[in-house]
Amino acid sequence: MASFPAILRSEWTKIRSVRSTVWTLALAFVVTVGIGALLSLLTNNNFTEFRRHDQSPFDATGTAFSGIMLGELAIIVFGVLAIGNEYSSGMIRATLAAVPQRGTLLAGKTVVLGALALAVSLVTAFVTFFVGQALLGSHSTSLSEPNVLRAVLGAALYLTMICLFSAGVTAMLHNQTLALGVLVPFFFLLSPILSAVPKVKTLAHYFPDYAGSRMLLVYEQNGQPYGPWAGFTICLAWTVAALVGGALVLKSRDA
Amino acid sequence: MIELHDLTKRYGKTLAVDRLSFTVPPGVVTGFLGPNGAGKSTTMRMILDLDRPTGGRVTIDGRRYGQLSEPLKKIGALLEAKAVHPGRTARDHLLWLAQSNRIPERRVDEVLGLVGLTPVARKRARGFSLGMGQRLGIASALLGDPEIVMFDEPVNGLDPEGILWIRNLMKRLAGEGRTVFVSSHLMSEMAVTADHLVVIGKGRLLADLPMSEFIRRNSRSAVRLRSPQPERLLDVLAGAGLRHEPGPDGSCEVVDGDLAALGELAASHGVVLHELSPQQASLEEAFMQMTADSVEYHAGDGPGRGAPGTSGAPGAPGAPGGGWGAGWKADGNRPPAAVRQEEN
Ligand SMILES: Nc1ncnc2c1ncn2[C@@H]1O[C@H](COP(=O)(O)OP(=O)(O)O)[C@@H](O)[C@H]1O
Ligand SMILES: [Mg+2]
């Protein structure tokens, strides 16, 4: 058996030595913080106007996280590239020749990818939160308010899971272009559209993005089918399923 | 030592490798020869467990590749297609490979020096020429100081200087006692590098013998005689105790015969000759003859397929029934029961 720590070191070298992966992670941070800051500033300056028709309690955390969708896009691309560039470059053959234990290899990749995505997501989530609150002025909230800390941590976990889900799907499709072509329309067209269609939305409520993003909500929404931790569990199940699927495909396929 | 037992690979309708059995002996350069599409690359991918065999098995020193814990220390390979991320530097590429098999980092710089890539070690692979890419691939293969190295068409597309460098490298590696397994579709390339020869066509084993034996059998000269009185001619030859083989168009050929002596012999017995000519077959011709079936089979597959003798084999390529490959093939067993001779 290959040494697992050796695989981790090797995979870490792979991730840090290619610009595209580093950049997409940096981008995830920048857009999430930046858009959140912008929206927080705008909201603070136009608070009464923005809130005129809104009866629900103001979610200062959610406002700070306005950029999460774009951060999610960047981290999806990161997850896809980290796995998919091995296929597009033919490097997967060098990798599997070095580590023929394919399941162990994918586990190592997942650990490195997941740890890095989690670290970046945690920093992103907390910076986004604090910058947003600073710009929201008198309308801001704090981590000690009910559910707020859970929402901030939830944002980090959500981004990490979406990243790993994308990585798993890429391993299943063994092609990064195809993976992006499936994942981006799924998350940014299909899922939002279906969640708005009356009957179908019950189904869409069990998609990984809808489920995972329940963690970000400080206040219960009307008609919400389940709570934040159930949402987390559903999203985690999707992630695990994608990774297991990816491992099965990797193990069975010719490289 | 690499051992293949009935190794078979099918891609849909294509039988790429067909019950291939042979052994790659240690300490020599074994040439793996076959026309394009013969199944060489597929076989090599199966040795590395990249492609899963449809049937049979292949072992490295008795173990499956997947059972090796740090395979780069056992067997290093240069594959046909580039396996390098264009956005990564040469050094980082070797570094991740080294780390995966717990090879010390200083070995990375060592192999970079060995293949002459030290000056571009921190350049991204995207800008590498074909030759530099090939050197990087070879550096990866040598990284773990393996006792077995395997190169798939290493000289393809290289300039003469690069070709010479690779030839010398392979000889040096074998000289150090390593097992070297190298594929090519060029007989001429094999003739100058290989000690042992394995020939395949259409995925099947055609020959497995020491290079010297292949040369001995195929560089024989002969004299071709054609007569309107063939029975008489054969009687005369038999009477003189000369060994002969049937040639094309009712001719017969005397192996290692002497042109003048044969002419005189025929004249003294009053046998009319329509032809009395020396025959010399090149190794390329022998190879083409041997693989003629597989070449025909692949002739329509696209550019670059077919003619194995791109080095320009002299004489009419594959003249029907002619050339020494035919006789060579006939005196052994015909494929698929291949010609075979163990290393002595
Ligand atoms: N991944 C694959 N899928 C389908 N057919 C393949 C694949 N790889 C090789 N082949 C086919 O198998 C045969 C042998 O190919 P290959 O091993 O590349 O030959 P060689 O290396 O001797 O030129 C060819 O007919 C080729 O088209
Ligand atoms: Mg090939």
Keywords:
heterodimer; A: 255 residues; mainly alpha; 12 helices; 77% helix; 0% strand; globular; B: 344 residues; alpha/beta; Rossmann fold; Alpha-Beta Plaits; 2 domains; 7-stranded mixed β-sheet; 4-stranded antiparallel β-sheet; 24% strand; binds adenosine-5'-diphosphate; binds magnesium ion; membrane (chain A); transmembrane (chain A); transmembrane helix (chain A); ABC transporter (chain A)
Note the topology.
The complex is a heterodimer of chains A (255) and B (344).
Chain A: H1 4-16, H2 19-45, H3 47-51, H4 60-64, H5 68-89, H6 91-98, H7 102-136, H8 148-173, H9 176-196, H10 201-204, H11 208-213, H12 228-252
Chain B: E1 2-11, E2 14-24, E3 29-33, H1 40-47, E4 55-60, E5 75-78, H2 90-100, H3 106-114, H4 130-142, E6 148-152, H5 160-175, E7 179-184, H6 187-193, E8 196-201, E9 204-210, H7 211-218, E10 221-226, H8 230-239, E11 244-246, E12 252-255, H9 259-268, E13 275-280, H10 283-298, H11 324-331, E14 339-340
Bound molecules: adenosine-5'-diphosphate and magnesium ion.
Describe the overall structure.
Chain A: This is ABC transporter. Chain A: It holds the Pfam family ABC2_membrane_4. Chain A: It comes from Kitasatospora aureofaciens (Streptomyces aureofaciens). Chain A: Keywords: Membrane, Transmembrane, Transmembrane helix. The complex is a heterodimer of chains A (about 260) and B (about 350). With about 260 residues, chain A is mostly helical. Chain A has helices at about 5-15, 20-45, 45-50, 60-65, 70-90, 90-100, 100-135, 150-175, 175-195, 200-205, 210-215, 230-250. Chain A is globular and about 60 Å long. The mean pLDDT of chain A is about 95. Chain B is α/β, with parallel strands linked by helices. Chain B folds into two domains: about 1-215, Rossmann fold (3-Layer(aba) Sandwich); about 220-285, 2-Layer Sandwich (Alpha-Beta Plaits). The interface between A and B is medium-sized, with 32 and 33 residues. The complex binds adenosine-5'-diphosphate and magnesium ion (MG). Adenosine-5'-diphosphate binds near residues 14 and 16 of chain B.
